[in-house]
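Pasting two entries for a bug report.
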Amino acid sequence: MTTRIATRQLARLLGKEDLYRRLCLDKGSEPQGLTAEQLALVHALVDERLGELLFGLAVETVASDDVIDAASALDYLEDRLSFLRELLTEEQRERIRRDFRDLVARWG
């Protein structure tokens, strides 16, 4: 199930303990799917930590062997945003895109 895997990856980027605590999950458990209420909690956490998420995505991008320039970095980001799509609002995705473009523009 994509949501479960995407939630696990988002938890890695934002902090597993905090995300899972907000979702009221027992320690060590993982969500099989998210309710509308849980998804709203995920969106709120992303809003609070958008900078951390952007940083984590940037670190992943730099570490990727497939990224060789700004264009491939933007392609990589789009793949990640597509994978996390169910967990992010369109506004959040757009903010990440905008800030990421600004970041990679400095790569030269």
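Entry 2 (this is the one that rendered wrong in the viewer):
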Amino acid sequence: MLRTARALLPLAVFFLVLGCSTAPAPKNASTPATELAPSPNLFVGRILAIDHERNFAFVALTPSAPPIALQPDIVLFARDAELRVTANLRTSRQLRGRTLGVQIISGQPAVGEEVVFPTLP
């Protein structure tokens, strides 16, 4: 028994030193400046198709699209995956089911980009 205790003593010292030398777990110190705020824009849908000759596009609407964004002559924005605005769009009277027709005011939207309704001026 004495032999076993002497053989395990260096192992116990090794684990004791190893456990004391590890860095403490970082605290979850998130400041309000580093937290992401939710977007003030409301998600309307995605660009389904584009007619470049007529500056017109079709938007596949989400089930949660805000009704105010579907009214004629409302300005919407198309944005890419990096959330950069790629085009300004104006809604038209072309609303069929879950598809909305929009006039391209400026910019170059691409198929698949998201369309949002800006809630802040």
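Dev reply: Rendering is fixed now. As a check, the viewer should reflect this: Residues 5 and 12 are 10 Å apart (CA to CA).
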